[in-house]
């Protein structure tokens, strides 16, 4: 029987998370995308804490016009700015089971342009 989209993504996510883990010096940049919004978090897996989070629902971005991919780029730049302000320059990218394409790729490219290394 064929897998549903959610089951397939969950399997890919488990396979990625076996390898990718964040530390305090090099946290994990986790990306979640829903149909309308996009979210990014920097996570320290050793202590189990979220260091910072940015989403398209933040007050700073609510009135911003643009397509979903343009919003992903804006969120990527915002994550990079906040991370650099917090003293974080290198991260491990976690695409969370999504294909590295479209909004996920746009967010990653914008974070790299903003100064994050991964």
TrEMBL record:
Gene3D superfamilies: 3.30.420.100. One of its GO terms (molecular function) is 5S rRNA binding. InterPro entries: Ribosomal_L18, Ribosomal_uL18_bac-type, Ribosomal_uL18_bac/plant/anim. It comes from the Bacteria. GO terms for cellular component: cytosolic large ribosomal subunit. Pfam families: Ribosomal_L18p. Keywords: Ribonucleoprotein, Ribosomal protein, RNA-binding, rRNA-binding. GO terms for biological process: translation. This is one of the proteins that bind and probably mediate the attachment of the 5S RNA into the large ribosomal subunit, where it forms part of the central protuberance. Part of the 50S ribosomal subunit; part of the 5S rRNA/L5/L18/L25 subcomplex. Contacts the 5S and 23S rRNAs. HAMAP family: Ribosomal_uL18_B. Belongs to the universal ribosomal protein uL18 family. PANTHER family: 39S RIBOSOMAL PROTEIN L18, MITOCHONDRIAL (PTHR12899), LARGE RIBOSOMAL SUBUNIT PROTEIN UL18M (PTHR12899:SF3). This is Large ribosomal subunit protein uL18. The lineage of its organism: Bacteria, Pseudomonadati, Bacteroidota, Bacteroidia, Marinilabiliales. The gene is rplR.
């Amino acid at each position: 029987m064929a897998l549903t989209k959610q089951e397939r993504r969950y399997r890919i996510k488990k396979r990625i998370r076996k390898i990718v883990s964040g530390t305090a010096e090099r946290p994990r940049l986790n990306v979640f995308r829903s149909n309308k919004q996009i979210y990014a978090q920097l996570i320290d897996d050793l202590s189990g804490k979220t260091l910072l989070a940015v989403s398209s629902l933040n007050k700073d971005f609510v009135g911003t016009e643009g397509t979903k991919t343009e919003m992903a780029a804006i969120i990527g730049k915002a994550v990079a700015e906040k991370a650099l302000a917090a003293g974080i320059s290198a991260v491990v990218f976690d695409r969370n089971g999504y294909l590295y394409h479209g909004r996920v790729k746009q967010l990653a490219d914008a974070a790299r342009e903003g100064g994050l290394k991964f």
